[in-house]
Amino acid sequence: MLKDAVLITGAGQRIGLYLAKQFLAQGQVVVFTYRTERPAVDELKAQGALGFQVDFTDSASLNTFLQRLPQRVASLRAVVHNASLWATDAQVNAQPGLLADLLAVHVDAPYRINQACRPLLEKTSATTADIVALTDVKVADGHADYAAYLASKAGLASLTQSFAQAFAPHIKVNNIAPGLVIFHPEDSDAYRQKRLAESAIPVEPGEASIWQAVRFLMDSPNATGSTVSLGQKKA
């Protein structure tokens, strides 16, 4: 049975993968979920991380994961809600069921994971345990093309506020709201310049910015119910 593990959802690529590697490099026990088999998943497992293949849009898949987790994990130091589904409103309007999938990934799954993991978090040997959710900096202002996506992320942000009250004082619950983190390899130079021009600080901060925010929240003795915003658009 694994003790004082960090659970990261959606760690098969990009930010989740980076966070998992950083925790492993520090000697931290890592448990992670992934949706799709890929070389990075095998790499994490080879480094000692425990992986569960889960589709958060499938209630049965999530149920199976929540039943199996306490069979392998005795206690949790933290849960990081990184799993995300991105879609434009045009895609939501064209694909029946996509709105439900957004809500499943960003609201239903984190809600149920928090409830199921509470006993494991309360068993940590650390002074406090942590839940950290990754939302989106645009939740505060909205966006004409991403109403459905941002509404689902706003639901996740709201969950952190309620769970911060419900799980205190032994479990801290916080939110990281990133803007631009890292470009996709296929993003054009024109798109990159456009996105950078929108930011008050026009840099591509990279996954390290998320890692630094996660560490800040976990290292803080009393930060709970808070939002760390990363990135700000120009006035």
TrEMBL record:
Q: Does the keyword Mitochondrion apply?
A: no
Record-listed E.C. numbers: 1.5.1.50
Top-level EC class as recorded in UniProt: oxidoreductase
The record's GO molecular-function terms, alphabetically, read: oxidoreductase activity
Keyword field contains Ubl conjugation: no
Stored SUPFAM superfamilies: NAD(P)-binding Rossmann-fold domains
From what superkingdom does this record's organism come?
Answer: Bacteria
Query: Which keywords appear in this protein's UniProt record, sorted alphabetically?
Result: NADP, Oxidoreductase
Q: Return the protein name.
A: Dihydromonapterin reductase
